[in-house]
Every structure is written in C-alpha cells, then in structure tokens.
Amino acid sequence: MLITFEGIDGCGKSTQIEKLKEYFDNNGVGYSVFREPGGTEISERVRSLLLHDTDDMDAVTELLLFSAARSQLIREKVIPLLEQNEIVILDRFYDSTTAYQGFGRNSSSLSDIHTLNKLASHGTVPDLTFYLKIDPKIATQRTKGTEKDRLESAGDDFFKKVATGYDMLVSTDKRFCVIDADRSPEEIHDEIVTIIEAYQQ
Predict the structure, then answer these.
(1) Is the CA virtual torsion 127, 129, 16, 88 positive or negative?
(2) Which residues of the chain are modeled with pLDDT < 70?
(3) Domain interval for residue 48
C-alpha cells in the first residue's frame, strides 16, 4: 500500500507523518517512510543540489532533477517494498511536481509533466493521497521565523499558484483525500487513520 502526503509548505505534513508512524508502531504495523526528494544516496545528493546548493537554477532543470531523484527512489526502494506488500509512506510524490514545477514555476506544459511523472514513477500510483489543504497565508504564518530552503523561500505568489495546482489535481482523481489542515494535529490524525482503516477493510 502506497500512501502519499501532499500540500504546500507549512500545511503540517511532517507532523501527520510522525503521528501516523506512531499509530502504526503502536499497532504492530510494518511500514517504511521516505521523503522526496531523497531516500537513497543518489536522491539525497540531488536533494542537496535542489534545495540548498544554489539559487540560480533554470525551471526545467529543477523539474528534471526532482524527477531524477524520484526515479531512483521508486526503483531502488519503493517498488521492492510494495512487491513485498509493505506499507510505504511518501512525504511528497509526483503531485508535488505538478503543483510546484507545473503551476508554481510554469516550467513545462502539464501534458509534458504528466508524461515525465509517469516515467519517473515507473508507473507507480498511490493508493491514497492525503492533501493537507490550508490557506497559503496561514501556512506562511506557521513557517515564519524558521530557516527556509530554496523552494520554501519562493514567496506568497508562488504558493498561491501551487495551491491552485493542488486544487485542480484533487478535482480529477479519486485517490485524493482532502484534509482541512487548519485544525488541531489530533483532529487531523484521527481523520487520516479513519480513512486508512476504511480503505483497508
């Protein structure tokens, strides 16, 4: 089972993934968690390049690097685990590429990005995608005063475009579970667990 978490920076993805890990641990459920970009030696090197090493990067270069990191993670780690019927949790997947590099950066046509996403994911599709939906202004307040990477520093207009991208995606695919992220972490976690349990029945 592949579970992915999506949303703009500041939506609370990391908190909810930690809570889900704790829930699985308490219930004796095996799982693996990976972040994007990252999760393998090659992908972590690409992550450093994408988020920390330079501010001067062409939008298409950014798109291709994210996809390259994803391809390595999916082929090296995720597919073998799914073949063993493991639960895999991803902190971001190709929907981030559509929202951030497609809508946010306008790096390429959505058609081209869809083709690239399919290629880089080796045809892997999430079973459930939790989209933690939050107003970009609230998300910005949440991240105020924290150290930000290259993408997190892109500005309010950028994140408004990204949020628009996510809203478009959730309207086109039933695997999305839209979660109101402007609530307590406990309320959000309870809803996520309820959805997962219903899916597994």
Answers:
(1) positive
(2) 53-55, 145, 147-150, 152-154
(3) 2-200
On whether the CB atoms of residues 176 and 129 are closer than 8 A, the answer is yes
Question: What CATH number is associated with residue 140?
Answer: 3.40.50.300
CA gap 191, 117 in Å, rounded: 28
Q: In the chain, where does DSSP find H-type helix?
A: 13-26, 41-48, 59-73, 79-83, 94-96, 110-120, 136-142, 156-170, 185-200
When divided into structural domains, the chain yields a total of 1
Q: Is the pTM of this model over 0.70?
A: yes
DSSP-assigned letter for residue 156? H
What is the per-residue pLDDT across 99-140, written as a single tens digit (0 to 9) for each?
A: 999 999 999 999 999 999 999 999 999 999 999 999 998 988
Contact 52, 108 (CB under 8 A): no
Rg of the Cα atoms in the chain: 16
d(CA 120, CA 114): 10
Q: What was the pLDDT predicted at 156?
A: 84
